[in-house]
Structure formats: structure tokens, C-alpha cells
Amino acid sequence: MELNYRRKIATLSRINHKNFVNLIGYCEEEQPFSRMFILEYAPNGSLFEHLHVKEIEGLEWNERVRIIMGTAYCLQYMHHDLNPPIAHSKVNSKFIMLTDDYAAK
User: Fold this and answer.
1) In terms of Cα–Cα distance, which of 63, 64, 12 is closest to 39?
2) pLDDT at 88 over 90
3) Among 65, 54, 52, which Cα is nearest to 94's?
4) In this structure, which topology does domain 2-81 adopt according to CATH?
5) What are phi and psi of 27, to 5 degrees?
6) What pLDDT is stored for residue 32 in this prediction?
7) 55 class by beta-carbon count within 10 Å (0-12 exposed, 13-18 middle, 19+ buried)
8) Termini Cα distance of the chain
9) Helix, strand, or coil here: 22?
10) At 63, phi and psi to the nearest 5?
11) What is the DSSP letter of 83?
């Protein structure tokens, strides 16, 4: 578990893209044992919430295109611009966060 946590910190620290949630910091406590990441805040929640939760207002088409393009640009960066490349295994609407102006993170 400790090695996996350290790998995630190292990986998140390498990513510098406007459409990726920034790692601000992390915390390690021994008593009680806990590990946590401090990530950039995305005030409009997840894409999943906007697509599937009835109480939340839906997205306009221009917002949807912006989210798709931001996600694609970030994946391009992670797969082709980073050395070594990073493959994210959880790219789905629950893990795409939205900023105050509905940019994908």
C-alpha cells in the first residue's frame, strides 16, 4: 500500500496540464494510519452528476464539446507528450471534474 501511494504521488506530480486536477499536496499520518491527497477544487462536481442526476441542470452543447475537447487534449498530453507516458485506467464521467466555467479537469 505504501509503495502504491508513493507511486501515485510521483505520477500526479509529473502531470502539468490545464485539464488535469492539480495535486496541491498530500498528508501522511502514522497514528491513526491515514494517507490523503489534496487536489485542486472543481466547484461544478463531476460530469457524471450533470449527465445522470435529475436535480442538477443539464449541460449545453457548447459546454459538452468543451468538456470533450479538454478531456481529449489531456489524454493526448498524458499518452504522447509525457516521457514515460501515463495511461489512466479510470477515464469515465465520474472522474472528469468540472471547473466554475465547466472546463474538464
Assistant:
1) 12
2) no
3) 52
4) Phosphorylase Kinase; domain 1 (3.30.200)
5) -135, 140
6) 76
7) exposed
8) 26
9) coil
10) -70, -40
11) S
C-alpha distances (whole Å) from 19 to each of 82, 83, 87 are 14, 18, 15
Locate the domains of the chain by residue range. Answer: 2-81
How far apart, in whole angstroms, are the C-alpha atoms of residue 19 and residue 92?
14
Q: Is the peptide bond before 43 cis (omega within 30 degrees of 0)?
A: no
Predicted TM-score of the model (pTM): 0.84
Write down how long the chain is: 105
- Is the bond into 32 cis (omega within 30 degrees of 0)? yes
How many Å is the Cα radius of gyration of the chain? 15
Question: Model confidence over 23-55: pLDDT tens digits?
Answer: 999 998 887 778 899 999 999 999 999 999 878
